[in-house]
Amino acid sequence: MSYEVRMDHNMKMRKEMFTSLILAVVLIASPSTVSALAVSPLSDIETADLLFIREEEKMARDVYLVLGEQWNNPVFDQIALSEQKHMDAIKKILDRYDMADPIIDEIGVFGDPDIQELYDALIARGMASELEALEVGAFIEEFDIRDLWEAIEHTAVSKIKNVYVNICEGSYNHLVSFVDQYENLSGLDYEIQYLTPEEFEFVCEADTHSRPMKAAFLRRR
Ligand SMILES: [Fe+2]
C-alpha cells in the first residue's frame, strides 16, 4: 500500500469511528434512554413503602378535609393542603419509576383495606367532638412519622430518602400544631398515642435540631 493510499485508508477508518461515536452519544442522550438509565429497579420493600405512603398521605388529607368541615377549624384545612403536597411528592417518584398509582380519586375511599379500616375508625372518633378530632390529627401524624422513619431506613436511594425526610419534617410541624390546639382547647396535657416518649420529645423539638443531628437520631433508632 502506497503512503497516499494508506493515509487515505486511515482517514476513512477514523471518519467511520467518529461517525459511530457520534451515533452512540446521540442514542445515549435521547430522553427515553436517559430516563431508563437514570433509575435502577427498586426492592420489594421500597416499592411497598412508596405505595403505602402515597395512600397514607391521602388518608391524612381526607380525614382532615372531613373533620375540618365538621368542626369548622382551619387547622385541618391548612394541614390538608400540606398532605396534598406530600401526596404529590410521592406521585413524582411513582412516575419516575413508572409505577401505577394506587390512589382512588374519591374522598374516604382506599385500595388498601388496612388504610380503609383505619380511616373509617378515625372518622368515627373525630366526629364525636372537636377535641377527639384534634387527637385524631395528632394520632395520624405520630403514625405517619413512624412509617416514614421505617421507609427512610429501607432505602438507599437518596432522592427517595430526601422526599421522605421532607415529608417527615412537615409531619413534625403538623403534630405540634394538633398538640398545641388540643392543649389550648382542653386545658389538658396531650397524651402520646403511638410514639415512644423519647421519639415524641425529639419530634416536638425537631425545629431546633440540625440536619446531621436528625440523621443521627434516625440511624440510632
Ligand atoms: Fe401530616
Description:
It is a single chain. This protein has helices spanning 3-29, 31-38, 44-71, 74-96, 113-126, 130-154, 158-186, 197-204, 211-220. The chain is an all-alpha fold and 221 residues long. It has two domains: 3-34; 41-220, Ferritin, CATH 1.20.1260.10. Helix 3 runs antiparallel to helix 4 and helix 4 runs antiparallel to helix 7 (158-186). The site of fe (ii) ion (FE2) has 7 residues, from helix 6 and helix 7.
Q: Tell me the CATH superfamily of the largest domain.
A: Ferritin, core subunit, four-helix bundle
Biggest pleated-sheet summary: none
Count of extended strands: 0
**Which structural class should the secondary elements be placed in?**
mainly alpha
Total discrete domains: 2
Q: Please identify, by name, the CATH architecture of the largest domain.
A: Up-down Bundle
